[in-house]
Amino acid sequence: MGEWFGNSWVWNLQWRRLLYDWEIEDLRGLEHMIQLNEPKRDTEDGVLWHSTEVASYPTKCIYAKFNDSPGSSLPNSIAPIIWKNFIPPRAKLTIWLANQEKLKTGDFLVEKGIITQQNAWCPFCRNEIESNSHILFVCRFAWSAWMEVLKWWGLSAPLHMQFSKFSIQWLGLADGRRHRHFWALMFGCIIWSLWYERNLIKFERKIPNLQNFVSSLRIRIGIWAKEMMGSFGCAPNAIYNADSFIMYS
Ligand SMILES: [Zn+2]
Predict the structure, then answer these.
(1) Which end of the chain is more exposed for a tag (fewer CB within 10 A), N or C?
(2) pTM for the predicted model, two decimal places
(3) 9 within some domain
(4) How far is the CA of 118 from the centre of ligand 1 (A)?
């Protein structure tokens, strides 16, 4: 991490793997940031909050800061639901990246010269170069999965192919505020599951199978709902009880 030379601290960051070209810029930013805060010997560490006028720390201002970052905000309709712990952290990160079109799909890697177009095909359909929107919405595989989930609720709907518009429409299908939390959970679960499935096919040579994917999706949504049920504030026998959802819905 670093060491003292006299009274000066010198950072020595080490990484478990070689960094990719596109990560070097982030590294420069990190180095610049930590060099602005040089550790001092014989001084005790403390925590100061500078982002508000008063020196107290409201969680709300972190949320506001997230939404102030250019190009990084989730749609207002979904952001509060995503960030308020209704969705596991691993899915929050995937949704965060997907919303900014920063999942490292084939189109990105071709543009950076890391892979050739021959290696950038969508692993689901093998018909198109994969992109964030293709993998999550446009691809026949992904689209069919979304439509299958709608069928569980006796619904069908033409939906947008763009993340924020899609999410707004999706949540609009929920019936009532409490159900919106469940629909947000389903949204997060489907996004995360598509990305996870894509990685299994791409890196572990899994064979794409829509029926199996939709079945596992159903179970995963049920498990997530069960885990998160306390956060919903729902009664155990509520309509979205995870066990009955898996077995009967
Ligand atoms: Zn595809």
Answers:
(1) N
(2) 0.67
(3) yes
(4) 14
pLDDT at 40: 81
**Quick check: is 47 in a domain?**
no
Q: How far is the CA of 88 from the centre of ligand 1 (A)?
A: 26
Do 24 and 97 lie in one domain? The reply is no
Structure tokens at 153: 């609720």
Quick one: 112 and 212 in the same domain? yes
Span from the CA of 198 to the centroid of ligand 1 (angstroms): 10
Domain extent for 26: 2-35
pLDDT at position 18, please? 81
State the distance from the centre of ligand 1 to the C-alpha of 70, rounded, in angstroms.
29
Buried residues in 101-114 as b, exposed as e (16+ CB within 10 A):
bebebbbbbbeeee
**Helix and strand counts by DSSP (H, E) for the chain:** 11, 2
Cα(78) to centroid(ligand 1), Å: 26
Based on the domain organization, do 80 and 157 belong to the same domain?
yes
Task: Tell me, yes or no, whether 129 and 237 share the same domain.
Answer: yes
- Specify whether 31 is located in the same domain as 63: no
The contacts of residue 7 (CB under 8 Å, 6+ apart) are: 40, 41
Helix or strand run (H / E) with residue 189: helix 177-204
Segment 108-129, tens digit of pLDDT: 888 888 888 888 999 999 999 9
DSSP secondary structure letter of residue 17: S
- Our count of domains for the chain comes to 2
